[in-house]
Design brief:
Shape: elongated
CATH architecture: Beta Barrel
Helix content: 10-25%
Radius of gyration: 25 Å
Largest sheet: 8 strands, antiparallel, barrel
Strand content: over 45%
Number of strands: 10
CATH class: Mainly Beta
Order of helices and strands: HEEEEEEEEEE
Number of helices: 1
Length: 157
Amino acid sequence: MVKLDTNIGVRRLLLFIVVASTACGDSTEPQADVSGSWTYSATYAVDLGFLGTTNCSGSGVQATVTQTGSTFSGSVQGGDWTCDVPSFDLVPFTSDNPGQVSGTVEGTSVSFEVQGFVLLMHEGTLSGNSMSGTLTGTGSIPGLGSVSLTGTWSASR
């Protein structure tokens, strides 16, 4: 009489699972690199409290960031910023007082904050040498008081 080993089927199944999982490899995306110089722009609505809401935009902001692992940091300065009625010009990031950037990148998702006189929180997507997304912010503008804002942003290098 031939004795059948019932464990052969289980062993073959386990071997198949090990081989198949090894052949498939790691499915995580490679870490994106956001290090370098970026040119940033944004359009947003600012709630000025009792003064109402104004639309603002900025372009030409220069950001320089360095990355370690999934975190990055750096600074921003310059750019042309304007707002509608009540009309005022902003100079949020100067060479004497640059904004500070800190954030994370995971795959193509990027999240960062820029601290100037308003804290701007950014969420977005990275695609090659460009990224874009939404922003929110709170803070105080000298002469105007507390503000909050929402809008969109983009950056390219």
